[in-house]
Sequence to fold (509 residues):
Amino acid sequence: MSQDKVAVDSIKHTLKALRKRHLLEEGAHAPAIVALSKPIISQGSEWKDKAENLEVELQQCYKAQARLSEQLVVEVAECRASKALVQEKEAVINDLQHDLTKARDECLQLKVIVEEKTKALELVMSENQELKAQLQQMTVKVKNVEAENKMLIDRWMLQKMQEAEHMNEANAFYQDIRDQLKASGIAQLARQQVDGVVRRSEEGAQYFGESTVPTTCNHKIRAHEGGCAAILFEYNSGNLISGGLDRTVKMWDTNTGSLIRTLHGCVGSVLDLTVTHDNRSVIAASSSNNLCVWDVNSGRIRHTLTGHIDKVCAVDVSKISGRHVASAAYDRTIKVWDLQKGYCTETIICHSNCNALCFSTDGQTICSGHVDGNLRLWDIQTGKLLSEVAAHSLAITSISLSRNGSIVLTSGRDNMHNLFDMQSLEVCGTLRANGNRVASNWSRSCISADDSYVAAGSADGSVHIWSILKAEIVSTLKEHTAPVLSCSWSGLGKPLASSDKSGIVCTWT
Fold:
C-alpha cells in the first residue's frame, strides 16, 4: 500500500509540473506571438493559418507530452514493482544459496563418514578373513584331535577290557576266599561280645558292654519344639545330646531323664550333630548354612564355621585326632575343617547332594551317602574320589560305621538298610521289614556298640531292631506318635535313644 501511494503522489506531482510548465510556455510565447502578429498581419491570412496550425501542433505536442508523462508514470510504477519483485527473488536466491552451502557441508561430512565406514568395513573384512583362516586351522586341529582321541579311547577301552578280565579273575578268587571266611567271621564277632572286655582297634582300647535288645521305654522326654532331627550319645557315657528345629542343642542324663545343659547360639534348625572323642566339643550342622562348635564345659560357642551356601545337613568328627571335622551341604560340596584354626582346609565337589557322611576309623577317608543313592569314599588329603557303589535305588538318608570300622550301615528312601564291607564296598547284608518306612531325607539309623544290632525308625512312629547275624527283626518298639527321625545307641551298650518329628525323645532298655 505504501508503494502504490508513493506512485500516485509522484504521478500527481508530475501532472502539476507539466501544467505549470505549459502555462509558463504560454506566457513566454504570448509576447512573441503578439510581436510577430503585428508585421505579419499584413501578410494576410497565410500567416494566420500558419499560426493556427502551429497552435494546433503545439496543442498536439502538449497532448503527446501529457500522454508520455502518463506512460512515464506507469512505467515508473511498473519499474518499482519489478524492483520489489527482483528483491524478493534475490532474497529467495540468497536463502537457496545458504541451503545449498549447508547441503554441501553436510555432503562433505557424510562423505568423510562414508570413507571412515568404508575403512572400518575393509578392516572388519580383513579380520573376518583372518578369523576364517584361523577357524579352518582350528577345524583341522579339532579333526586331528578327534581322530587322536578316538584312537586313545580305543586303546583305553582295550586296556579297560584287559583290566576288567584281570579284575574278574581277582574278584572270583576274592569271592571264594570271602565266602569261606564270612560265616566264620560273623560267628567270631558274636563270640567276642563279653561284658567288660577290652576291644582293641586302630585308635586304641575302648571299653564297651554287650548290647541287649531294648524292649521298654524308660523315659519319654519332650525335648524340642517343632521336632528333633538329631541325637547322639557322648563317647563312653550315658549322656544324650539332642538338636531340634527350635535352634537349640540340649544335653540329657538318660538315667534320670533330666536336662543337664542347653546350648544356645545356633540361628537355624539343627539337622545333625557330632561330638569330639574327649566329649569337650559339640558340633551342630545347621539349616543356616553354617556349623556351630560349642565348648561343653562353658556352654559357649568356640567357632562358627561358614563357607557353605546352602543348608548343612551332615557332620562328623575324625575318630583319630578330634581336630578335623567333615560337613556336607545341599550346595553339592563336602568340606573338611580344622577345629583348632577354625577354617576350611579342603572342599570336595560332588555330583549329587550329600545327605549323610562319616569318617573312617583311620581318619583318612570320608564315607558319604548321596541323593542319587550312591555310597562314595573320598581321600581326606587329596579330595579325590576313591570308589563308589550304587547302594540304594533312592536317596541315602543315613550312614553309620561299625565300632571296628569294617562295616558301614546305609539307610535309604527305598526303605532298605544295607551293610557294606568298607574295603570292597560289597554288600554284606540287607535288612528290611514290612511297615518300616524311612520318614525323611535325614532319617538316621545306628549300629549297636557290639556291632550285633541295627536300629531304625519308621514313619509310623515305630522303631525296628534287627539282628545283624540273623538278618531278621528281633524287636519292634512302639511309643512315638510321630515319624521317628533319628536313633542312637550308647557306646556302653545301652540305652537306645530315638527322636521324632514332634520333638519327643525316648530312651529304651
Notes: The first helix runs from residue 2 to 41.
